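User:
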Amino acid sequence: MSLFGKKYSKKDVEIRNILNEESRRLEKEKVAFEAKVAGFNQYRESTLAEFAEKNQVLEKEKSDVAQLKQKYERQMELIGDFTHEQKRINERIDRAISTTRSIVWRHRNDSVLDLDTTNLVNNWKTIEGLSDISNKRMELFEFSVAPGLFKKLAEESVSPYKCFEKIYKSINSGFDKEARIFRLEGPSYASFRTKRILPIAFFILLDNAWKYTIPDKEILITFKESEKNLTVVITNWGPWLENDEIEQLTQRGYRGKNALITHRDNGKGLGLMIAKNILDACGVKYQFMKMPCTPITIKNIKYGLFGVELNFSPIQVSNSPSL
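Assistant: Predicted structure:
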């Protein structure tokens, strides 16, 4: 056999045919192998994508669990805060009801001809005022659980003077032996448009002063009006506070070292923190401060004059106390 002028033996041709056949076989195997590699790579990419997706789901679930845990802890804090303040309100209501019951009992059983209507009316006003505070406290709790709704809290015009006057009388009601001396210096006929929950902060501040003040020292509430502003300052004698303690008063759980001595089992360090949050939400500027005084010592405990300044702006002013 000849090819391009060259002569090949039969054996050479057979060898060439075998080599060509082997070449075609190897080419087919190469194509098949490349197809397998491509399939493997596709499977690997698919597996990695699936793994990444599952890992992403797992990370999200872990994040969801962390968020749920955080939400649960926050709600438990809110429940604790609500319970703490509601107990103080309920204690006042119980005292007022007990006093009312005593007045009625004496009239029925001691043959008292004249019913003490003045005290009955005062106690009725106390219960009514505290019930209103209690409702507002519940409203604050409900909206605190759902922060997104917090901005939708109902608003109303609040008269700080009238609120403080009503609250201090409610706080003293039923506590004849533990009553504190409150004095209001004003008067003030200003009103302040804000969220309905503001009186809760007033209650907390006065209740705090009532708890810590020296029994024979007055709690003074002064009101100073200008054209567009009202400044209210609450001062009372209480356990001495250092400057660094003043700065920490609104932190959760914080109590001054002297307060821990005088009222070890009466307080959790929540009141002023809650009051601060309410004042912030209501747009009231505030300052906790030590007032100029000569410290006094009672039973080895140092006492000083403590103040809270509240600033309301803008206000509406009237020459009549009807606001």
